UniProtKB/TrEMBL annotation:
UniProt-recorded name of the protein: Predicted transcriptional regulators
GO molecular function: DNA binding
UniProt-listed CDD domains: HTH_XRE
Parts of the chain that traverse the membrane: 87-108, 114-135, 165-188, 200-224, 245-268, 280-299
Length: 301
C-alpha cells in the first residue's frame, strides 16, 4: 500500500474527515487530499507527527500495509473489560460503603439492629453486582479464551502514564484516613460520657478511615484492572485451557485467601463486634497473595 492509502486508512479508523486531520496537522484540507492521492509527500516532521498520532512506526506508515497490520477488536474485549472493571469497582465500593455506614450509625447511637440491616442491604447489593458481573465475565472468557492483540503502543503508553495517578491518589486517601484517625483518637480522653461512649467514638474514628478506604479502593482496583487489560498476552496465558497445574493452583489459593478475608470480616464484625478492625483481613490477604505469587514464581523457574 502507498503512503497516501495508509494515511487515508488510519484517518478513517480515527473517524476523522480530511478537514479534521488538516486542522490537527495545521495544514489545509487540500494538502491532506494531496497526501492521500500521493500527489504530495508530507515533510519529515509531519510524518513523525502522523506516525505518533496513528500509533505506527514511520516504516509502517510509509512502506507498510496499514489495512493488513490493523487488528480489530472483533470479540468486544475492550468493552467487556471496561464493563467488568466498573462492576468490580462498584461492588467493592458498595460493600465498603456498607461497613462505613454501619460504623457511622453505631457511632451516632442508632439501634444496632437497624444499623446491621442497613449494612446487609449494602452487602446484598454489592454481592448482586459481583455475581452478575462475574458470571457475565466468565461466559465471555469461556467464549473468547484467546484474543488477538490489537492495542497500539500509543494506547498502552497513554495508560501507563495515567496508572501512577490512580495508585498515588488511592495511597494519599488511605494515608489521609490514617492521619484523621490518629488526630481523632488524640481526643478520646475528652469525650463526654453523657454525650457519647468511648466505644461509639472509636466507631466514628474507624468510620472516617473506612470512608477514605471506600473512595481509595476503587481507584486501586480500576488502575490495576485497566493496566492488566492492556496485557492481552497475559490474558491469553491465564485463560489457556492447557494452563499448567501450578498456575491453576496459584489462582485457586489466591481466591481462597480473599474469601477467607471476607469470612474474617463477618466473624470479627458480627461475633466480636469489632467493626473498626474487621477490614484488616483484606490488606493482609493482598500481602499473602503477593507471597504466594513469589513462591510459585520461584518454583516455576
Amino acid at each position: 500500500m502507498s503512503l497516501g492509502t495508509n494515511i487515508q486508512f488510519y484517518r478513517k479508523q480515527k473517524n476523522m474527515t480530511q478537514e479534521d486531520l488538516a486542522e490537527f496537522m495545521n495544514v489545509s484540507r487540500q494538502t491532506v487530499s494531496k497526501w492521500e492521492s500521493d500527489t504530495a509527500f508530507p515533510e519529515t516532521d509531519k510524518l513523525i507527527t502522523l506516525s505518533d498520532y496513528f500509533g505506527c512506526t514511520l516504516d509502517e506508515l510509509i512502506k507498510g500495509s496499514a489495512e493488513e497490520n490493523f487488528t480489530e477488536d472483533a470479540a468486544g474485549y475492550d468493552k467487556e473489560m471496561n464493563s467488568f472493571t466498573r462492576a468490580i469497582c462498584l461492588g467493592t465500593a458498595t460493600v465498603l460503603a456498607g461497613v462505613t455506614t454501619l460504623l457511622f450509625t453505631v457511632g451516632l447511637g442508632l439501634d444496632e439492629t437497624i444499623a446491621t440491616a442497613i449494612f446487609m442491604l449494602f452487602v446484598t447489593i454489592g454481592a448482586a453486582v459481583f455475581i452478575v458481573s462475574g458470571i457475565k465475565h466468565g461466559n465471555f472468557v469461556k467464549e473468547n479464551p484467546n484474543i488477538k492483540p490489537f492495542y497500539s503502543d500509543e494506547q498502552k503508553r497513554d495508560f501507563r502514564n495515567k496508572f501512577p495517578v490512580f495508585i498515588a491518589s488511592g495511597t494519599v486517601l488511605v494515608l489521609l484516613g490514617i492521619i484523621a484517625l490518629m488526630v481523632m483518637q488524640s481526643f478520646v480522653d475528652k469525650v463526654v460520657p453523657d454525650v457519647m461512649t468511648e466505644e461509639s467514638f472509636d466507631a466514628l474514628c474507624a468510620a472516617v478511615l473506612l470512608l477514605c478506604v471506600t473512595v481509595a479502593a476503587p481507584l486501586f482496583i480500576y488502575g490495576g484492572m485497566q493496566y492488566a487489560k492492556y496485557d492481552i498476552e497475559e490474558y491469553n496465558k491465564e485463560n489457556n485451557p492447557d494452563k499448567p497445574f501450578a498456575d491453576r493452583l496459584m489462582s485457586a489459593i489466591s481466591g481462597g485467601i480473599m474469601l477467607a478475608a471476607t469470612i474474617v470480616l463477618f466473624i470479627m464484625g458480627f461475633c466480636f463486634n469489632n467493626w473498626e478492625l474487621c477490614w484488616i483481613g483484606y490488606p493482609i490477604g493482598g500481602v499473602l497473595i503477593g507471597i504466594v505469587n513469589c513462591i510459585f514464581g520461584a518454583v516455576k523457574k
